[in-house]
Amino acid sequence: MTRSSVLRTVARFAVLLALAAALIAPGTAFAYPVGGSVLPPDARPKGYSLTEMARRLALFTTSGNDPSRYPNTPFQILYFDPGTLTYDSSGGGLAYRGTNAFTVESGTPYFVPLHNADDSPPVLGVFPRSQAGAKRYFFDPSQLGGRGYEIIVDGVSTPIGPRYVAGPVKTPPLLDGGGTHMITLGAFLRPLPPGTHTITIRGGLYGDLLPPTYDITYLTSDFTYQVTVRPPRHRHHR
After folding, report:
1. Which of 117, 128, 165, 234 is the most exposed place for a label (fewest CB within 10 A)?
2. Distance CA 92, CA 218 (A)
């Protein structure tokens, strides 16, 4: 979500949807309690890092979650269905909500993007060129001012802070304006046990850079995903 203003026309609504897509917005199943689902930021499940996932998700994110741009990874990426996206601009900012449902095989791990920023114009402030700068850019109140990010798995909340910021990564020309660098706040989840699970992500931007460019004081997201995990398949021996 990197470009928007308060909605006043149908044309501007399209801009808001692009902003939502660009900023928001991917052991064994029985070895971990649900409360331990979120992996630490330095984890490398199946050899993947948060940085690699930021790179692989860049075109999918900036396409507005176009299924043809969904990246090939060993994870189920959790993302909102654009057809469910709604917003509330009554409080001087933009509050987005959306949902999606996924059915996966037992043992499937997950990647959850929470928010993104890129260098497609208009750029908010000075886009960072280092990971340390990206963390400040995302969470410093004088810049994007991120706060309140959390992943809630079946009622158990895990705060997501600056250590989960990946990037900036170099990308092909982005689909929201041609930028070539992306920052992603995201986390890996361990596989969940068979059954139906509810995963919610929340958080937002409240920084000083939003009002001058977009005429809004905050930009928040609240997305809920239903994940159905199929039981493991048992082989029958003759």
Report:
1. 234
2. 7
| 38-96: pLDDT as tens digits | 999 999 999 999 999 999 999 999 999 999 999 999 999 999 999 999 999 998 999 99
Which pLDDT does position 234 carry in this prediction?
67
| pLDDT tens, residue by residue, 137-158 | 999 999 999 999 999 999 999 9
pLDDT in tens, 102-115: 999 999 999 999 99
How far, in Å, CA of 227 to CA of 224, rounded? 10
Name the nearest CA neighbour of 183 among 225, 222, 99, 126.
126
Domain range for 121 is 10-229
What total of structural domains would you count in the chain? 1
Contact 55, 169 (CB under 8 A): yes
Assigned domain for 238 exists? no
Separation of alpha carbons 16 and 238, rounded Å: 59
Tell me if the bond preceding 168 is cis, omega within 30° of 0: yes
Contact 178, 119 (CB under 8 A): no
Whether 2 is covered by a domain: the verdict is no
